[in-house]
User: Fold Catechol O-methyltransferase from Eleutherodactylus coqui.
Amino acid sequence: MAQRLEERILEYVKQHAAEGDPQSVVDHIDKYCSQNEWAMHVGDEKGLILDQVVKETNPTIVLELGTYCGYSATRIARLLKPGSRLLTVEMNPENAAVAKQMIQFAGVQDKVEILEGSTEVIIPSLKTKYGVDRVDFVFIDHFSERYTADTKLLEECQLIKKGSVLLADNVVFPGAPDFLEYVRTCGRYDCTYYPSHLEYSDKLDALEKAVFKGP
Ligand SMILES: O=c1[nH]cnc2c(O)c(F)c(-c3ccc(F)cc3)c(-c3ccc(F)cc3)c12
Ligand SMILES: [Mg+2]
Assistant:
């Protein structure tokens, strides 16, 4: 029995999902976490909203804050057009190691790069160290206490331009009240609220989409 929950999830995927098939990996993570052990992936219900927003944005460069096991990175990468890429930031090295294997097994490793470290250090280095000019889509799913600071950092580093889309998880549970206040009142975002449920649960949760209108 693998020691850590995240390793048990990876083991289950390796033993039951179809290698090279990102949809199969996503489906099997959802199956394991709804039947066996709860884990904090965005999940199948909120995942369908994520899919819809990714499809309507059709992004070339995606930034994800909070990789965890690689569920949403796999979910997003499966929808990306050839030549596009996803950079995902994870500060927990053990989770990053699981995510690397999950992404590899799903066969999306050519589109996904895992950046280990904290967002406050990595975001300011994206232009210089990772050759990013602008990000078209940001999935914010790390710590709700960092949502606002990291959004302001993306603005200050000029990584988001007019039309860039932010999509934040958990704006109801655990909640991100200062983030909602900021994007809805600062005058630089067009916001949309998507009510849903906490992953693998009937508790209420929601995603907030914030489309940048420019500085
Ligand atoms: O931390 C997170 N990052 C990203 N997504 C998350 C997510 O989608 C979640 F559903 C939860 C969650 C919410 C309720 C709960 F009871 C347990 C965990 C967390 C979370 C929140 C606070 C913690 F102390 C630990 C985990 C996160
Ligand atoms: Mg989340």
Remarks:
- The mean pLDDT is 98.
